[in-house]
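Supplementary Methods. Inverse-folding protocol.

Structures were first reduced to a discrete structure-token string of length 475. This string, shown here, constituted the complete conditioning input.
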């Protein structure tokens, strides 16, 4: 290769091809990334934990193996969100409670990725315990949006999204409960996908049957994301919800000739205010599906119970996952996390039953909706990137939100129905900030989401796959 810049600008799929042909080595890729991180990360704070020595040792072991045994990723470096354990690597979850924690073992997903030839070289920044869609914490500080470093990168996979946008990663892992893969993808002009629960196996130390939070891929293009999902997906006996890999790879499905016949667009899913410019940009992008002969109509399923159901089930999840920290480390928790845990402990059984029933009703309605429409399209987020100094979005269109996460309803409503959803870059605001279109299919419909997203990605042709240098508001 001609140098670091040339490598950084290549797609993940292309880099993997070069690895399999021995045209580039994993060590060369790590050298390129280390140089890029040194040149860029001080401006955005996306990858606060680096483990290049561990990565090079892994690369050396991998290079001693035959090419055919190096897995799907074949030595491609990957960044892991700092909510997930990587053996021997500092894992803080963005909390002072775990600021110096070094786990002895890795999460199930990390083990799978390393078995598939992925090389972990960095941990990406996240808000404390992933709470809130603005990536800041008391351990590492805030991650900044590379399109304007005075703005939020969103979250909670904000570090992952920024690393991708700036060329500090070809592929990045993230997780999603209320939009944590989709929101930062939208704010940073990359692609993030929340898969169907169980599609990606994970360790489940707190709750065996939880389906709100999932692990998923982020990348700079739809093809790269599908390629990464192929490496992530698969059954594992340690995760009873995990699913077997489908017969057709996700990359193959993405490249197939399939396209939707009929899609629905909704600016608000009937449940939330939306910034007028975001609504305009996403509607205009959705309507361009017609250029591929796709019928585009205004419609959405009835998701009117989403707020009530999600608030209860999310609180229950936080109490189960992080309740042990409240009594011993209350002084080290940010106020939003304290509120989440206390709300969870205060729930009554009738409240939980009602929330579960509301979720079931919405899921049944959505199933009927997807019998009519192949895909549902809507904004991935309801506002453009906001100032990073604001902890969260308090209001939109003169509507004040009741909680610090209610502005995420357009994402968490989809979480509740168990549907796969992808945020695709679809345009820019007048200030030059990225906007994402959420593309949704029925549960287990990842192949449709990816193939449809690829059709629209080609039509829009935004060139967001090219990494950028961080820029300030003045620039």
């Amino acid at each position: 290769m001609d140098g670091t810049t040339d490598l950084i600008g290549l797609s993940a799929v292309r880099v993997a091809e070069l690895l399999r042909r021995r045209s580039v080595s994993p060590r060369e890729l790590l050298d390129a990334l280390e140089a890029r991180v040194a040149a860029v990360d001080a401006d955005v704070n996306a990858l606060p934990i680096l483990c290049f020595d561990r990565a090079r040792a892994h690369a050396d072991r991998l290079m001693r193996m035959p090419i055919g045994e190096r897995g799907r990723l074949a030595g491609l470096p990957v960044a892991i969100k700092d909510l997930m354990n990587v053996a021997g690597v500092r894992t803080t979850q963005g909390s002072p409670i775990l600021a110096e924690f070094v786990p002895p073992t890795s999460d199930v997903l990390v083990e799978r990725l390393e078995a598939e030839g992925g090389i972990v070289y960095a941990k990406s920044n996240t808000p404390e315990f992933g709470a809130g869609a603005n990536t800041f914490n008391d351990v590492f500080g805030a991650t900044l949006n590379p399109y304007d470093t005075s703005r939020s990168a969103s979250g909670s996979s904000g570090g992952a999204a920024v690393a991708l946008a700036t060329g500090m990663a070809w592929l990045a892992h993230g997780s999603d409960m209320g939009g944590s893969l989709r929101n930062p993808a939208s704010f940073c002009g990359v692609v993030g996908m929340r898969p169907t629960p169980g599609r990606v196996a994970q360790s489940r130390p707190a709750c065996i049957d939880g389906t709100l939070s999932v692990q998923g891929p982020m990348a700079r293009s739809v093809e790269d994301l599908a390629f990464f999902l192929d490496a992530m997906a698969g059954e594992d006996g340690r995760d009873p919800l995990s699913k077997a890999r489908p017969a057709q790879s996700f990359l193959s499905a993405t490249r197939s000739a399939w396209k939707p016949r009929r899609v629905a667009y909704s600016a608000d899913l009937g449940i939330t205010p939306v910034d007028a410019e975001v609504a305009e940009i996403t509607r205009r992008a959705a309507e361009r599906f017609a250029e591929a002969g796709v019928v585009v109509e205004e419609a959405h399923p009835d998701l009117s119970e989403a707020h009530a159901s999600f608030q209860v089930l999310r609180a229950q999840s936080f109490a189960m996952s992080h309740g042990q920290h409240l009594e011993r480390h209350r002084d080290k928790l940010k106020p939003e996390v304290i509120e989440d845990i206390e709300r969870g402990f205060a729930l009554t059984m009738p409240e939980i039953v009602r929330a579960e029933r509301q979720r079931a009703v919405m899921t049944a309605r959505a199933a009927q909706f997807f019998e009519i429409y192949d895909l549902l399209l809507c904004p991935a987020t309801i506002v453009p990137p906001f100032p990073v100094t604001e902890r969260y979005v308090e209001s939109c269109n003169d509507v004040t939100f009741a909680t610090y996460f209610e502005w995420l309803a357009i994402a968490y409503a989809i979480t509740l129905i168990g549907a796969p959803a992808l945020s695709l870059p679809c345009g820019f605001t007048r200030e030059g900030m990225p906007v994402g279109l959420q593309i949704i299919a029925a549960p287990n419909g990842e192949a449709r989401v990816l193939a449809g997203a690829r059709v629209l990605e080609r039509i829009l042709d935004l060139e967001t796959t090219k990494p950028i240098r961080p820029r300030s508001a003045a620039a």
